[in-house]
Amino acid sequence: MPTTLNEQQETIRKFRSIANFPTVIGAIDCTHIRVKKVNADGGQLYINRKGFSSINVQVVCDADLKIMDIVTRWRGSVHDSRIFRECRLKQRFEAGAFSGILLGDSGYACTPYLFTPLLNPTTPQEERYNRSHICTRNTVERCFGLWKQRFRCLLRGMFGDIETAKKTIVACAVLHNMAIDMREDVFPGERDSIEQYSSEPIVQRYIAPSIRGNIRRRQFIETHFQ
In terms of pLDDT, which residue wins out, 71 or 195? Predict the structure, then answer.
């Protein structure tokens, strides 16, 4: 994650250039990486709602699709909101380490530092907020697509032991960032649609916003989307 004020301001500037959504420092989401069936005690906890064994990987990316933060320790049955609720990054936001906010989907609770889309926008301002939010947050979906195109093991699944799988996922994230820094394209002939390799997205249940998050989002919309 960007640490200095200059780094944070540059990250915010790049996100704002996408759809004029201010003060964004990262886009957050989770993706399921398939693993082989775990037969040990607790193995059933790796089975996600699509019915296959996986690791639920949390990623925060920047506007350049680089992975700034990654969590790989959670089993597939664990909900996205719990992964964020118990991660160190959340503690850093609550401690005021960053000047910007995260954008997430409705699988997360809306908080003062993580904004989600409005479930039922009723005004032109709320509709503008939602359109800008969706377009800006889409960077993390594009990040997943590019990451998995570069490293097809993330699409097909990991078939070694769980600990090796976790380390491999992190290594792929580091190499993905290096490839972006070096402006390296995906391999020729591998620009085919990622959907044919990946399973259908897992629909997240709606998480009600916190009272503080709701108030902060309302103030934000009134200030920036009039």
Answer: 71
Angle (CA) 14 16 21, round 5°: 150
Residue 177, H or E segment: helix 162-181
Three-class secondary structure of residue 146 per DSSP: helix
Contact between residue 129 and residue 121 where contact means Cβ atoms under 8 Å apart: yes
For 56-109, give the DSSP string.
EEEEEE-TTS-EEEEEEEEETTS-HHHHHHTSHHHHHHHTT--SSEEE--TTS-
**pTM for the whole thing?**
0.88
Q: What is the pLDDT of residue 197?
A: 37
What values do phi and psi take at 8, rounded to 5?
Answer: -65, -40
- φ, ψ at 75 (rounded to 5°): -75, 160
Residue 24: exposure state from Cβ atoms within 10 A (0-12, 13-18, ≥19): buried
Q: Is 114 helix (H, G, I), strand (E, B) or coil?
A: strand
Averaged pLDDT for residues 100-109: 95
Spatial distance between the Cα atoms of 116 and 95, rounded to a whole number of angstroms: 20
The pLDDT score that the predictor gives to residue 37 is: 85
Pairing relation of β-strands 24-34 and 101-103?
parallel
- Identify the band that residue 205 occupies on the pLDDT scale cut at 50, 70 and 90: low
